[in-house]
Amino acid sequence: MDIRMKSTGQSGVALVLVMLIVALATTLAAFMVTRQNLWLRQIESQFDRAQARRVGVAAIDWARAVLADDIRAGNTDHEGEMWAMRLPAMPVESGEVAGTIEDRQGLFNLNNLVRNGAVSTPDMAQFRRLLEMLGLPGDLATALADWMDADSETQYPGGAEDLYYLAQARPYRTANRPLTELGELALVKGFDSRSVESLRSYVTVLPVPGPINVNFAPAEVLAAVAQNMTLADARLLVQQRGGRPFKDVADFRQRLPHGGIEMADGNISVSSQFFLVTGRASIGGAQVYTQALLQRSGGWPAVVWQNIQ
Ligand SMILES: [Ca+2]
Ligand SMILES: [Ca+2]
To answer: How far is the CA of 114 from the centre of ligand 2 (A)?
Structure first.
């Protein structure tokens, strides 16, 4: 790393910290009024918890501001960008707050498997390759496709529709719609906690189908999305992008290790639309954890879902 790059990185971290401080300052200022009343009632633990919640919510707003700022700088997203940096926990009045922003576009989106209610054959082939690389049965793809596709016709081999689920000790019906969260896999034929755990670092559930960001995809996902790319090829690409991210899809194609590797343009990208924000706020004796999925389609990112507890 030369000196110029180092100083750019440092000012980047400083800017991200300033944005966090502004988000927190606004929250805490608004809180002072409430605080007096609560003190009168001497319910400090509730006060701590409420304050931790507010700080947790402020952390999500901070992430949205950071990501809105990032897109003004350009459409490429990679691991070396400011928002992807891990920040140390920040002290706040009688506690601390920590937060991270992680890309979700580099993971295989399970909702790519069924598009407009119908099974997508090319996406199914990709998911089967991923399952095989992870040592999981390829028929899991068929069961999941039946779970999500709009019809009730069982695909063979490996599929399952209402007939199968209604015959269980605790009967239930097929969803016949896109997944809402990864935990839903536990309901699908053939998936168990072991297979869900094996998949966790490679797959995601996004509300709409979309391409893979090749600047974030793990080697296994790259090799699954491309035809004729070995895991060794993919690992080489992951290593290379560490020092020099792919600046566009053409750059990625140009840097492929050999000919014969095939990918549709619509399957790959160097931009991210979806991000996972994880925050932890500790105030006094209270701890609040926040998690949110953000969708950035241009300017200010929207919250797809958030979980505060
Ligand atoms: Ca970016
Ligand atoms: Ca179905």
So the answer is: 10
